Structures are given as C-alpha cells and as structure tokens.
Amino acid sequence: MNPASSVSDPLIRHLAEILGPGGLFTDAQILAPRLVDWRGRYQGRARCLALPKTAEEVSAVVRACAGAGAPVVPQGGNTGLCGGATPDESGAAVLVGLTRMNRVRSLDARNNTMTAEAGCVLATVQEAALAARRLFPLSLAAEGSATLGGNLSTNAGGIQVLRYGNTRELTLGLEVVLPSGEIWNGLRALRKDNTGYDLKHLFIGAEGTLGIITAATMRLFPLPAAMTTAWIAVPDADAAVALLNLLQERFGAMLTACELVSEAALELVLHHFPESIRPLPEKTPWYLLCELSGSDSRLDEAFEEFLATALETCALRDAILARSLDQAERLWHLRENLSEAQQREGVSIKHDIALPISRIPEFLARAQALLEEHFPGVRIIAFGHIGDGNLHYNLSLPDREANTALLKAQPRVHCLVHDLVAALDGSISAEHGLGQLKRAEILRYKTPVEMELMRAIKKTLDPLNLMNPGKVL
Question: What's the half-sphere exposure (Cβ side, CA atoms, 13 Å) at 203?
Fold first, then answer.
C-alpha cells in the first residue's frame, strides 16, 4: 500500500497517482534523514517525498506542483555542504529525490562518452566506465553516496580537476525538466556544437534553482597505463606552490592531482582514524599529496628522480613514493578522511574558497595573522586542491565553551576571511555552491550587474519561484 494513498491533501493524492506504489511518502521516519543537511546545520520540513523513476515522471511531478503552487526541492545523495538540498521550515515543499533514477543509459567507448541518470551514485558511474576500460575522472570523498545530479548541480570539483577539469568541463549534454514541466533533451555527445547559446551551462552549478537535471552525457578517458603517488613534506606554502610549478614543468598533463594538507589537518585524521599511519617520521607544516598518471611505464622511476633532485635543491624536506596500490590508497585515505575527521571533532566554521594559485601563500599568512588577532588561539584546519587554487579553510577552538563563542561570531569570521579572499581576486565558493549558507553573503562580493543578470535568468525560467526557492538567490 502506498503510504500516501489515504492523505487528504489533493496534491499528494495526485502525486501518488503519478508515481504509483513506492513512489511517494509522507511518513515522518522516512522523510527525517532527508530533511537535514550532511553537516546538521539546516533542518527543514516537507509536504512529502516524491521518488520518480523516469524523466517523464519528474515532468509530471513538476507540472502538478506548478499547478498547485508548491515549491520543489530536488535532492540526490544529500551530501551537500551548504544546505542546497534542504527544504525550508514551512513544510510547503515537495522533496523530489532522484535516487531511483539510477541507470546508465548508454556507454560509447569509441566516442569516450557515457549517458547516465542523475540518481546514479558517482562510484557507480566510475565502475561502469572502468568495466569498459575507460576512466570517469570525477573523484571526491563522498563518491560512495553523492549522485551525478548533485555533482552537476554544484559543479563539483574533486581531486583530479588539475588534469580533467570540473564537472562542467566533463559534461557534453544534459536532460533537464524545466520549471514548466517541459523536458529539454540536450543529451548530445558532441565536443563541438556551436549552434547558439550553450544552454547546459545554465543548469550546471545552479543548484536546482532553474530546473531538475535528470540525466547527463559525460566525457570518458582512456585508462592510464601507469600511475604513481607520493606524499611530500614541504617547509611552507611558498615551497608547495614552487614545487607544484616544477611538477607541471616536468610532467605536464601527467600531473593528475596535487593536494595540499596542513600538519594540523593530518593530526586530526590520525586522531580520529587510529588505523591511519603517519607517512613520514618528521612533522612539517605542510604536505603535498601528488598523483601522476599516463602511458609511460617508467613513471615511477621518473617521479623518483624528480623527487631526488628536488631534495637536493631544498624545494622539499622529505618524500615517500607509494610502492603498491595499497600504499597509494592509504595515502589517499589520509586526504579523503579529512572531512569526516572534522565532523567527528565537532562543529567548525568552514570556508570553500578559490584563489589564484600564486596568491595562496599570501592568503594563508595574512588570514592566520588576522584571525589570531581577533580570535587568539584559533585552530586552523587548511587543506585542498592546490593544483586548481581551491582551499578548504576551517576554523575552531579546542575548548568547547570557547568554540561555542566562536561559532556565535560566525558572520564576523566569514567577513574577515571572505573580504581577504575578495581582496586577492578570489571566490567565496569554489566547489560547494552557495545553497542557503552563502546566498546573502554573495551580495557583498558580486556586482549589482551580476546579481541582476542572475535574477533575470531565474525569473525568465522560473517566474513562480518554485524551483528550490531560497537557494543561491
């Protein structure tokens, strides 16, 4: 029996008819985990949970909601970090979960493309590509639960942006249900298609405010024949940037990933994941986790020679090269477990920022001095994708009572950090989106012209403001 079949709300009855058994729920226990964001910062309410299986069902749901004037909040794996997939507290919204839309529709290995539905878990997309001896390079810590639709909606980055680009660069075509309920089929597997406005870019990174992405055609790549990973100790952020430049000069596109990790961040992982092992015996302020991949069978040897030369020129203090896949995975687990370690440690003030790579050392030095001045003893956990200028810059105080006071000062903290980011020509959101967290703050950093253009696009596509209202704008 459909749990929603006996509800008196006519919209819910209509949606139950559209979706059939197992497609609509109003039960509080089923809805509960979907009404809070991953960080536990935002808690909302919803009219019901709709679980469509096809784009046509999504279309029918959106048409019904538009007719009833009901807001629609799309949700994938609910792993977002800015509250972008959490409904507000009014209880008026219909939560549309895409998790039953989880098919890989097609894979063309000779064209290096795959078309998959928005509810596909990222790891499933990776596995489907691997089965065809292809690589889908989008990789991030939540890939076991994050969905393709969510990655598209926030233009997710991940660890391999340096070589393959953000989700936007990996996307060739989209299928989108518009606020009117119409389906736009833009699933084209073309690298070149210069026939007017490239509409897909409106929806990538829009966090569901302009329509619901139901499927995408994504780029694939040949599997690299060789791969090697190293954990490198550097004395400071300047040395990290210098070493990144040397790696790019020596290896070019073979440098797949380059991650920056602070000693404070590493210690947090070692504390909360006691099975983890410190890669190098001596502590240093900063580390780089680097991955090379390509067709050269001598990649390990070439990387080892490079590191030996860098040690002689004092560009780095120490390094360890993974000698097996297991060793490489253990090094990557140190990086991938950072967010979980922070969650276990307690609440912190988080920033997802982008900077010109050359200005990262300046930001780190100035931000630390500024924050220490205003909040003595502040603990800074910094890490991120130095190869593309994306830092995760998170703050807390070790003492619980003092940390509570710091959290109350969050608007002031954001202002200090984000003003410095803006002064250095950076962005206050690199890959997590705006969601609810930064929708007001972005007004401080975008020009009135930019905001008016965004509002005009929103009003044109969603004149009733029913698509994920209260997010981004």
Answer: 32
- In three-state secondary structure terms, 238 is helix
Q: What is the mean pLDDT of residues 118-124?
A: 96
d(C-alpha 263, C-alpha 269), whole Å: 10
The closest alpha carbon to 458, from 179, 252, 256, 176, belongs to: 179
Question: Is the alpha carbon torsion for 204, 207, 213, 217 positive or negative?
Answer: positive
Give the integer Cα–Cα distance in Å for 328 and 53: 38
Structure-token pair, residue 126 = 């990776």
Q: In this structure, are residues 174 and 436 in contact, taking their beta carbons and an 8 Å threshold?
A: no
State whether the Cα torsion 138-142-143-145 is positive or negative: negative
Q: Which of 249, 247, 250, 240 is nearest to 291 (CA)?
A: 247
264 contact partners, CB below 8 Å, separation of at least 6 = 379, 380, 381, 382
pLDDT digits (tens, 9 = 90+) for 299-341: 999 999 999 999 888 778 999 999 999 999 999 999 999 989 9
> Which two three-digit tokens encode residue 116?
């998959």
> What is the distance in angstroms between the CA of the first residue and the CA of the last residue of the chain?
39
Strand order through the sheet with 183-186: 104-108, 113-117, 212-219, 171-177, 183-186
CB atoms within 10 A of CB 343: 14
Sheet holding 255-262, edge to edge: 318-321, 226-234, 286-294, 255-262, 379-385, 390-396, 352-354
Assess whether pLDDT exceeds 90 at residue 8: no
Using CA atoms, how far apart are residues 125 and 122, in angstroms rounded to an integer?
A: 5
Instruction: Find the Cα–Cα–Cα–Cα dihedral 143, 49, 101, 343, rounded to 10°.
Output: 0
Q: SS3 for 302?
A: helix
Could you tell me which residues are beta bridge partners of residue 104? 116
Q: β-strands 226-234, 183-186: how paired?
A: unpaired
* Separate counts of helices (H) and strands (E) for the chain: 17, 18
